[in-house]
């Protein structure tokens, strides 16, 4: 009897997921993959399994990954200085070589994990097919080296992969007009790609549970925000640190037509599935106009 109750509980979970599977079947979603979930092996496997499941139930996922912790580790190994200005890594020529090496290594590792599960995936750089074209980025007016501000997303290569039933795995390196490599903030890359692809969802896997009205009060987690509410929160001074540019990116993406933007705790096992396939969700979602009135 206990076994039967377990089976019925599993069936209930599947039934609860059904309307969400139906709603987003055939829709493009972008998953920005970073934080601790990229460092811990078991978490990494679970995230890739979750994305594979989303693919197999009919979503069209694109993964955009970072690699900041691993880059910092290799920069230190090389005896180089790590310096940030306005949250952006100062990237000279030697550092850029390390950035490209590390991100491409991570990229192929994630691609292989997806292939092992039985889902076709192709790892690409933003340089491939001129996917991410950039201008030089300045931080607080300061030259920070080979860091790019995305000016154009050429979606043809992504469309081609999706149409051929392949999951694109993108590392955030772009090219300028002279085809020099530039490091791109992974959040910026994910937002730009989600906007250009008209994604229905953009999910950020982070190292926090979501957005708090009061960061010192864990009970003040906000489950959903309209664009107006998100902008009011930004101007209130309650949001600081790395969450400030992340929420700004989210708002910009939603304003540009992305349906929903989710901020999730990537340290929580199956956070993507819990957010996408349950009524309650677990993180913070920022809603576009159509979602608010839908």
TrEMBL record:
Which reaction(s) does the protein catalyse, per the Swiss-Prot or TrEMBL entry? N-acetyl-L-glutamate + ATP = N-acetyl-L-glutamyl 5-phosphate + ADP
Q: Which family does it belong to?
A: Belongs to the acetylglutamate kinase family. ArgB subfamily.
Q: Which Gene3D superfamilies match?
A: Acetylglutamate kinase-like
Q: Where in the cell is it found?
A: Cytoplasm
Q: Where does substrate bind?
A: 67-68, 89, 183
GO annotation terms (biological process): L-arginine biosynthetic process via ornithine
Residues carrying the site annotation Transition state stabilizer? 32, 246
Aspartate/glutamate/uridylate kinase domain segment(s): 27-265
* Taxonomic source organism: Candidatus Limivivens merdigallinarum
> InterPro entries of this UniProt entry?
AceGlu_kinase-like_sf (IPR036393), AcgluKinase_fam (IPR004662), ArgB (IPR037528), Asp/Glu/Uridylate_kinase (IPR001048), Glu/AcGlu_kinase (IPR001057), NAGK-C (IPR041727)
Q: What is this protein called?
A: Acetylglutamate kinase
Keywords on this record?
Amino-acid biosynthesis, Arginine biosynthesis, ATP-binding, Cytoplasm, Kinase, Nucleotide-binding, Transferase
Key word Amino-acid biosynthesis present:
yes
Single GO MF annotation = ATP binding
